[in-house]
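REVIEWER CHECKLIST
Item 1: Sequence provided? yes
Item 2: Single chain? yes
Item 3: Sequence as submitted:
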Amino acid sequence: MAIRDAVNRSTRKPFAWGGLAGYQQLEAIDQALGELTRVCPECSYFQKLSKQVKRVLDKNRTLAINVKEAHQWLRKISACLRYPKQLCLDDPINSGQVAKELEELLDSFKPDPKYQRPQSALKSKLQRTWSLYGPDLLHTYDIPGLPPDNLQIESLFGRLRRHQRRVSGRKSTRPLREFGHYQVLF
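Item 4: Structure as written out by the authors:
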């Protein structure tokens, strides 16, 4: 069951990557099976299972290392953007400082496209988004008290839509458009 759970690990983007957590769980299972086969060497079932888990780990080790490095770079990017809100510092920051830090981070991020495909994909998407929309994304840092994103309000609207669907039994949330601002007010 633990192996099935590790293989079918759910994910919650952008920071919880199910595949990476599943690989780490398989490593822990491999250690537990190794200890079990040392204690009970005559248990052939656990030896076969341990061999299969080791084969899967060996086959995917390079990819897991690359994905882990890409995840670490994503964390660095989020820290540069002061996201999530817990990462915010008490000293005021403006969009110019954030832009400078992000450009320095992008300059230092040089993955090899041939061997580090997850990092390269992350870099290319970030570079493309930054070159297209970069200066327009950071205006919220210049207004004191304004959060850098609208995720909390979007989450509230999502909860209101789900509630509207549950109460009415309909797929459409059109009444929410007409009376949603009153629900948010209350």
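Item 5: Key structural point noted by reviewer: Residues 44-80 form the longest helix (37 residues).
Item 6: Recommendation: ____
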